[in-house]
Amino acid sequence: MAKKLSNRDQESLKTAFLKWVSEKRQDRLSILITGKTGVGKSRLVNALVGKRVAKEGRAKTACTDTVTSYRTKINGVEVIVWDSPGLQDGTCNEELYFQDMKSKLSEGRFDVMIYCISMAEARFYDADKNAIRTLTNVFGSKLWKSSVVALTFANLKTEDPDGEDDLAYYLGEKYLWGKAILDFLACIGVEFEVRQGIPIVPTGNYKKLKLPECENWLSDLWIKCFNVMSISSGLAFFQISESRLKYADSPTATTSTAAAARSSAVDDGNQNLILEDENQSANNLDAHETIPREIPLNEEQEDGLLKRMWKAFSEFCGAVKNVGHRFLRFFTRRALVTVKCFA
Prior knowledge:
This protein is α/β, with parallel strands linked by helices.
C-alpha cells in the first residue's frame, strides 16, 4: 500500500520535481520531417507544434542538395523543424545532401524523426525504400529508436471501395503498410527490438481528426512522438504543447483560451516564417485550414505521459515510487502548471 504523504512531504517533492524539470528540460527541440513531396509533411508538423512553422502547399520551392530549416520559439523553447526536400524525389546529390544535414544538425542528431508515407499510395515505392536505406546507412539503426512513421491521408482509406466492411478494409490497409515497412527495415538489417518499437500512426486532415480506430489522430501522433523522445526532449515537447493538451476530465476550453490558441498562430519576430504565403495557389484547398487548437488526451494517454515523467523523476532522486494513481495525477498536473508559469 502506498505511503501516505504529509503536506510537507508533498511540498518537498514538488520543489524537487520543479528543480528536476527545469534542469532536465532542453531549451531546444529539433524535429526532422521527411518523406516525398506532396505527402503532407509540412501540414503534419504544423499541426503537431501548433504553428505554421513549415511552409505548406505549392508556395514551397524545392532545394536539391540542402536541408531546409524552419525556426520558431514556443513557451520558451526554440523549435527547429528540418525538412528534407529532394531526398525521396531523386533530385538531390546524396553525398552533398547528408554533408549539409550533418553540418547543420547539432552533432548530427535530432530529437524525433517523423517519416511520412501516404497511405493512399498504391504501393511502397522504391523512392521511399532507397531513402530509408540511405538514412539508416548514414545515421545507423539507432535512428529508428527515436522515429515515428506517419501514414498520411489515412482518411482516404476509411471506405471500402467494394461497399463492404469499411473498418476491416481500413485495418487491412494499415496492416499491409505496417508489414511492408517493417519487413523492409528487417531486410536492411534494423534489429528486431528496434523495429518492434517503431510506432506506425495513421494520420488524416485537420477537418476530420477521428479515424476508424482512434478518436483523434493528432493526439495519437503526439503521444507516440513523446514516447520515442528522450525524457529531456520529451519535457521540451510537453512545454511547447502544454496549453493545447486537454485531459479527459478537463472542462471545455473557455473563450479566452480559444482566443489565445488562435493567436498562437503568430510568433513574435518570426511572422515572415510561419504565416502562410498570401500568394499561395487558390487550388491548394487545404492551405487555409485551421490548425487544431487542442490535443485531447484520453485517460490512458494521460496516464502514460505522467507515469513516464514520474518514473524518470523517481529514478533521478529516489522519490517515493509507489504513489497512488490519484496523487500521481493531481501532483504532477499541479507541478507542471507551476513549471509553465515560470517558464
